[in-house]
Design goal:
- The chain starts with a strand and ends in a 10-residue tail after the last helix.
- The strands form two sheets. The chain has a seven-stranded mixed β-sheet, sandwiched between helices. The chain has a four-stranded mixed β-sheet with strand order 5-7-9-10.
- The longest helix is centred in the N-terminal third of the chain and has 16 residues.
- It is built from twelve helices and eleven strands.
- The chain is globular and about 65 Å long.
- By secondary structure, it is α/β, with parallel strands linked by helices.
- It has two domains: 210 residues, 2-enoyl-CoA Hydratase, Chain A, domain 1, CATH 3.90.226; 47 residues, Lyase 2-enoyl-coa Hydratase, Chain  A, domain 2 (Orthogonal Bundle).
């Protein structure tokens, strides 16, 4: 299935709808966020989170950029409208999509998300990659947080030191006039794998297809525990994990897993 939202986002569903491939589709503007793209992406993530058939997502970009963040041309138009006392021309999000990110926490989505970073991941585009759980990058990809060049805010960087360490986060954020390579992003622990450009989507799909063979409830439990335990004590985290994993009791999948192991076959999980 291929669906295009407002001409700016392409959605492909693979593996009977279990894999969603979301492609940012404003290549002429380096996939920067105008109102339409922002709304289309957030709506699609919301639908992904609430679709019982969807198990894993891939986010990528069309053209030479993954995403370059806010469309500053549109930002200028909005500033001019505000100065003239005119209504904000920005496409407004409905209430249920406001303040969505960090995605997993805001809409309680613990399904795994993969970023397939095909090119520039700058500013808000870096943030989009950061919101995913694993990041696979083309060797031609470059990364940067450029807000200090244009006097813009980037409060979302508060989470970055947990991923790449404080020193690296300070360098990347405060010296925002420089980009780092995919290899350096890998060395910092931000990127999980660097591949040749032609291998990017096949590799991302391979990772996604592996996820369709795993037990979805167990996967989501573990993702939730890993994210939420970062702000808990060890005792609190253990108690939270034990309570959460009670949702595995009585599932068909909890019977299927050990049975498939004993029969030396691949389990057929149904999320039931």
């Amino acid at each position: 299935m291929v669906r295009v939202k407002d001409g700016v986002l392409q959605l492909d569903k693979e593996a009977n709808g279990r894999i969603w491939v979301m492609t940012l589709n404003r290549p002429e503007r380096l996939n920067s966020f105008n109102g339409e793209l922002r709304k289309a992406l957030y709506e699609t993530y919301w639908e992904f989170a609430h679709d019982e058939e969807a198990w894993v997502s891939i986010l990528t970009g069309n053209g030479r950029a993954f995403c370059t963040g806010q469309d500053l041309k549109e930002r200028t138009e909005r500033n001019a409208a505000a100065a003239a006392g005119l209504p904000d021309p920005m496409v407004q999000l409905p209430d249920y999509l406001k303040d969505m990110f960090p995605l997993s926490e805001k809409i309680n989505c613990w399904k795994p998300m993969i970023a397939a970073i095909n090119g520039l991941a700058i500013a808000g585009g870096f943030n989009q990659a950061m919101q995913c759980d694993v990041r696979i990058a083309s060797s031609k990809a470059e990364f940067g947080i450029a807000e200090v060049r244009w006097n813009q805010g980037a409060g979302w960087v508060h989470h970055l030191p947990k991923i790449i360490g404080l020193g690296n986060a300070l360098e990347l954020t405060l010296w925002g006039d420089e980009r780092i390579s995919a290899q350096r992003a890998y060395d910092w622990g931000f990127v999980n794998k660097v591949v040749d450009p032609d291998d990017l989507m096949p590799t991302a799909m391979e990772w996604a297809e592996r996820m369709t063979r795993l037990a979805p409830r167990s996967v989501r439990n573990l993702k939730e525990i890993l994210y939420r335990s970062t702000n808990m004590s060890s005792r609190e985290a253990q108690r939270y994990a034990e309570n959460l994993e009670k949702n595995l009791i009585g599932m068909e999948d909890s019977t299927e897993g050990p049975k498939a192991f004993s029969e030396k076959r691949i389990p057929e999980f149904k999320n039931r």
